[in-house]
Amino acid sequence: MTTMTSAVTLPPGPSVPRAVQGAYALTQPLRGMRRLKERYGDAFTVNVPIFGNAVVLADPAEIKQLFTSGPDLVDNLEVNLGRVLGPRSLFALSGDEHKRQRKLLVPPFHGRRLAAYEQIVEAETVRELASWPDGKEFATLPSMMRITLNAILRAVFGAEGAEFAELRELLPPFVTLGSRLAVLPITKKGRFNPWRRFERMRRDYDAIVDRLIAKARPDGDDVLAMMLQTRHDDGSGLTRDEIADQLLTLLTAGHETTATTLAWAVERLRRHPAILRELTESDDLLDATILEVQRTRPVIDLTARQVKQDGFRLGRWTLPKGYNVLVSIALVHDDDAVFPHAATFDPHRFDGARPDLYQWIPFGGGTRRCLGAAFATMEMTVVLRTLLRDFTLVPTSEPGERWHSRGVAYAPAKGGRAVVRRRTGGEQ
Ligand code: HEM
């Protein structure tokens, strides 16, 4: 039960100055979190850049309470995302406005609708894998980035032809610049300011979205076509600006996250030949393998909320209004008490059981849980199924790749290197 009292009780945490904590958080984020958990337990208080004073949670019961608390108690923590994705982005909205927008965006991402996109993902995968070298080591991440970008452009933006080609050029540098501007304290003043370049790119982007809207077919099954048809309870639809901001949000949230998870899947499978063999013989273990890749290599390590009322009781703690709360996805996934032998990569742990969605949390949780979770799962399933059908992935005894932050997500540091052999009879 959530009750309100005024006395603040915060978890323990380091007392070193913010600058020192910040330097550590920026250079050693995951190792830093693990050390703090060893020292202070499964909740601690930190003071770091971007998030300021924040409580970090790694206890599943407290995380469940946080995820299931209403937006009057905890809500969005705006970290400048509105400035880069647009003020109507789901990431920038709170409370009722978030609920209202999200309600219209959920149906196109519902599991049943997604079957329509499988063909797109398979075609993009086959097209990309045609260039994979036989028997020569290479990084798979660039390929995964192209597959997931093209899949979103076609299935979500409904883009083909000129708009598809222009968005493919424009969006990767636009998103990279945007994710830097979201976290760096750069004002919009000055002639050679990077914001100028960003605003120019945004104008180009808006012009392409206008063309896509003009071309969209009312009976189209891409997400943009559905956004144009959908209506709020009062009969009003989404405006052009809302559509443009949400499409950019979907691309930013869904492109690199899915691609890096796929690169990790390659990295993990090459180091677990028995699992790889099982997967080659049957598809049965594929769903569980994807769950286990996301458990052991969550590409987003934190999700954040902000306390909206004074004296918010969260498990053992009482937090003041304005305090930020971070959920450490990696710490929960690493916890032997939650996942026995957590360090072992073992998809069989999910045999016959779906994971508890407050313990297996790569997509966050509650009213702000990843909108594209089913889409991402569909994509990863189709890409891996196609890859394993057309190629033999050669195992390796090399140590695992390290984590590397790319801005939006954590990727394998060497890009998920692979050696593959094309199967005879596989599709070209
Ligand atoms: C493996 C791939 C992905 C991972 C690991 C991932 C992870 C996440 C996480 C951790 C959040 C924050 C949830 C929270 O605060 O509780 C999130 C939010 C979101 N994701 Fe994903 N995501 C992935 C793919 C996608 C895809 C493919 C799309 C869409 C095409 C997408 C769209 C979104 C959106 C719109 C939100 C904001 C939801 C809201 O605020 O209501 N994501 N995602």
TrEMBL record:
Q: Which residues bind heme?
A: 370
Q: Which Pfam families match?
A: p450
Under Gene3D superfamilies, the record lists:
Cytochrome P450 (1.10.630.10)
Cofactors, names only = heme
Q: Which family does it belong to?
A: Belongs to the cytochrome P450 family.
- Name of the protein described by the UniProt record: Cytochrome P450
Protein's GO biological process:
sterol metabolic process
Q: Which GO terms describe its molecular function?
A: heme binding; iron ion binding; monooxygenase activity; oxidoreductase activity, acting on paired donors, with incorporation or reduction of molecular oxygen
UniProt keyword terms in alphabetical order = Heme, Iron, Metal-binding, Monooxygenase, Oxidoreductase
Q: Does the keyword Transit peptide apply?
A: no
Q: Please tell me the species this chain comes from.
A: Amycolatopsis eburnea
